[in-house]
Amino acid sequence: MDDVHRTAILHPGPVVWPAALSLGDDDLDGALDAAVRGYEAMIAIGSMLDARHYAYWHNTATAGTFGAAAAAASRLDLDSAQTVSALGLAGSVTGGLWQMRHEPVMAKQWHLAHCLTTGVAAARNAAHGITGPRFILEGPQGLLTASCAEPRPLELPDHWRIDEVSFKPWGACRHAHPAIDAALELKAQGALEGPVTLSSYRDAMVFCDRPNPQSVIDAKFSIQHAVAIVMARGVPVLTDFEPEAIAELAPLRALVTVAEDLAITADYPAHFGARIESATGRVMLRDALGDPERPLADAGIIEKAQALMAWGGIDPSRAEAAIQAVLEGDRVSAITDILGEWL
Fold first, then answer.
1. Which of 19, 54, 180, 315 has the fewest CB atoms within 10 Å distance of its CB?
2. Count of structural domains, the chain
3. CB-based contacts of 333: which residues, under 8 Å, 6+ apart?
4. What is the rounded distance in angstroms from the CA atom of residue 302 to the CA atom of residue 320?
5. Same domain for 159 and 302?
6. How far is residue 34's CA from residue 29's CA, in Å, rounded to a whole number?
């Protein structure tokens, strides 16, 4: 869940990488090629989905089956016709409704598993001659007609779309990241004190205007809590979203007012921006840390990986071995063997 494409508003990594690593031979180059193709398909299709679609449908789930199918098709060396069928089969059952946002459930995480298994199954079936619809996107009863009011055109730029992906430095919803980033800058100026107003785009309000979070998931989807963390503690860490911190930071959350800024909304989703103001200072950011315009350094990505592994109870030496297998290795099994040990 740590990578995100802004225009498609989805997380390619947790769907594409398992598909790329779970099939084919032990050559890591082949898995890397498959992942790039999976990102390409998932982002291209996700970028066609409009605001009406995103209001009801989880884009990672909708486009994710395509991404997993494309990565699996690459690893299985499917020809053009088989790949079309794999994508058509995957698209014919794609979807994932946002209703889980209104209930304390794990459906969002389960969507990722469903995308993965469905996309891989589509590619495997296509390899055995099962055919899928060619016009699953634009057909009269296809995905775009069924779920979009004004779908955007398919874009095939002259670069790989994986280069457009942002990376989340903190363990909160990406829609809360611009608020965190702006608050950190205002704090560095010594002006993050007293009542503050955080303005951002509409989807940030829809997803993350939660002044009184009741759970860890609520806290990760709360702009008020994100700003309160920065006020009290500085750079957020994973423990800042746990029940103890939720209770402790309630008085500071009460000092945070959030509001939509129409100009920032007009700039979205190409840019995830925010503005924060206090009595003594103001910060406006158009892009958050981790976006392609402000990329996270390799050291920051490694630090995030180490934090997540430590949170999961992984021994530091094993965590380091995993990082080295990913960054320096040339075999898929060097990665999957470590994951197998963890599981």
1. 315
2. 3
3. 26
4. 10
5. no
6. 9
Residue 22 is predicted with a pLDDT of 93
Instruction: Please compute the mean of the pLDDT values over residues 98-109 and round it to a whole number.
Output: 90
Q: Do 7 and 131 lie in a common domain?
A: yes
Q: Which of 163, 155, 194, 179 is nearest to 264 (CA)?
A: 179
Which residues, 6 or more positions from 343, have their beta carbon under 8 angstroms from its beta carbon?
none
Task: Say which amino acid occupies 56.
Answer: Y
The length of the chain is 343
Give CA–CA dist 287/266, Å, rounded: 14
Tokens 């999961």, residue? Answer: 312
Residue 22 lies in a domain: yes
pLDDT tens, 258-273? 999 999 999 998 899 9
Choose the final residue of a domain: 167, 182, 215.
Answer: 167
Does residue 290 lie within any of the structural domains?
no
CB 334 within 8 A of CB 325: yes
At 2, the pLDDT band (50, 70, 90 cuts) reads: confident
- Whichever domain contains 120, its CATH number is 1.10.4100.10
DSSP 80-142: HHHHHHHHHHHHHT---BGGGGGTT--HHHHHHHHHHHHHHHHHHHHHTT----TTTTTSTTS
- 58 in Cβ contact with 103 (< 8 Å): no
Q: What's the pLDDT at 300?
A: 92
Residues 90 and 126 in one domain: yes
